[in-house]
């Protein structure tokens, strides 16, 4: 028997081209122009693209070389994460004017549970509209929102009327909305899974809904049950305001490939400095140190070591990183190095109970 869906009033707020929009906000000369944050003409990866750049097919995670090829007039801008973090804090303050049930997913997006909100407003749609207006007033930036009965549908809906728009999917509209949806629009279906679903004749939510849970589990493992339930509007995950950070890390892509461990040590010192700053700011320590190596052929290798005690000091991190670096011979020249710390001292056990909400209410 399928679980009973728990209906809540959930808003997913997603800033519009956040990093790029911040750069255009701070530098009027960049407004209306195609810009990419991060990347570079020959190296690096695009972190974010303005909507002007997206018209040419420039996307986040695209190589700077390909981005420039698609949009010759593209302007590359160095990322300023301290600035993005500063504005993100202001945005979260706006969220907390309405509810304390806020679950940030990143600097530029979050889930809000407004079933019972500080304003006593029964309309999640109106709250989303107010929040977007407040964000504009406070930061000068636009946001989009999705509003529905659970996190999954709200997340999908927030992409519908971007930029600077919102979409509400009412309780009685959820299943028809999901049935009509292209399978690639389902949150959690990546390119590889999308291709596999196409091969199985699954192109829309309606196609997915025809498949049994046994069939989906056979072809997609544990994810099969997830797909089976979400297409039926069943996703009972709560908004978790105390979402625990599982790891803290930083990485750098280099302008030229590195082939000597000695040069890599120098770069790793810089990366460790940045990680040390972030750990001190967050007051976090961890036991598992991971060294990430991306080779010139784009293959990625990780090497990890778990210590008996928590560390956060740069010198102790580097001691372990050096050990990992020389653990085995490098198979090729290196284009990216990263260091992360996991098994953190902020991880706590325990889960909250799911509270059912009345099945009938206005959005």
TrEMBL record:
Keyword Cytoplasm in record: yes
A Pfam family recorded for this sequence: IMS
Example GO molecular function: damaged DNA binding
Gene3D superfamilies named among the record's database cross-references: 3.30.70.270, 3.40.1170.60, 5' to 3' exonuclease, C-terminal subdomain (1.10.150.20), DNA polymerase, Y-family, little finger domain (3.30.1490.100)
Top-level class of the enzyme under EC nomenclature: transferase
Subcellular location field: Cytoplasm
Family that this chain belongs to: Belongs to the DNA polymerase type-Y family.
Described purpose of this protein according to its UniProt entry: Poorly processive, error-prone DNA polymerase involved in untargeted mutagenesis. Copies undamaged DNA at stalled replication forks, which arise in vivo from mismatched or misaligned primer ends. These misaligned primers can be extended by PolIV. Exhibits no 3'-5' exonuclease (proofreading) activity. May be involved in translesional synthesis, in conjunction with the beta clamp from PolIII.
Subunit comment: Monomer.
Protein name: DNA polymerase IV
Organism ancestry: Bacteria, Pseudomonadati, Bacteroidota, Flavobacteriia, Flavobacteriales
């Amino acid at each position: 028997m399928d679980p009973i869906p728990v209906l809540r009033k959930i808003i997913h707020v997603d800033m519009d081209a956040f990093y790029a929009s911040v750069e255009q906000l701070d530098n009027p000369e960049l407004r209306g122009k195609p810009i990419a944050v991060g990347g570079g003409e020959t190296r690096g990866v695009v972190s974010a693209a303005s909507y002007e750049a997206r018209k040419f097919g420039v996307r986040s995670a695209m190589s700077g070389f390909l981005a420039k090829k698609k949009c010759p007039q593209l302007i590359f801008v160095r990322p300023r994460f301290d600035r993005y973090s500063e504005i993100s804090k202001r945005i979260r303050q706006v969220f907390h004017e309405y509810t304390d049930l806020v679950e940030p997913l990143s600097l530029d997006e979050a889930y809000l549970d407004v079933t019972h909100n500080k304003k006593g407003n029964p309309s999640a749609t109106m709250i989303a509209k107010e929040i977007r207006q407040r964000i504009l007033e406070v930061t000068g930036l636009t946001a989009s929102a999705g509003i529905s009965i659970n996190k999954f549908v709200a997340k999908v809906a927030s992409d519908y009327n971007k930029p600077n728009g919102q979409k509400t999917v009412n309780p009685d509209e959820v299943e028809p909305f999901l049935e009509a949806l292209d399978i690639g629009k389902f949150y959690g279906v990546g390119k590889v899974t999308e291709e596999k679903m196409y091969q199985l004749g699954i192109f829309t939510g309606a196609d997915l809904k025809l498949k049994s849970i046994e069939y989906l589990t056979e072809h997609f493992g544990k994810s099969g049950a997830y797909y089976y339930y979400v297409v039926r509007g069943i996703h009972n995950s709560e908004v978790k305001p105390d979402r625990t950070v599982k790891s803290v890390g930083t990485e750098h892509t280099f302008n030229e490939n590195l082939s000597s461990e000695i040069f890599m040590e120098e770069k790793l010192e810089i990366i460790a400095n940045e990680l040390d700053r972030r750990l001190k700011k967050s007051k976090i320590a961890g036991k598992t140190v991971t060294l990430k190596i991306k080779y010139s052929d784009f293959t990625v290798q990780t090497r990890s070591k778990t210590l008996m005690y928590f560390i956060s000091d740069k010198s102790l991190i580097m001691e372990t990183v050096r050990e990992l670096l020389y653990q085995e011979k490098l198979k090729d020249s290196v284009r990216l190095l990263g260091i992360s710390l996991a098994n953190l001292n902020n991880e706590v056990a325990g889960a909250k109970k799911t509270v059912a909400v009345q099945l009938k209410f206005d959005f």
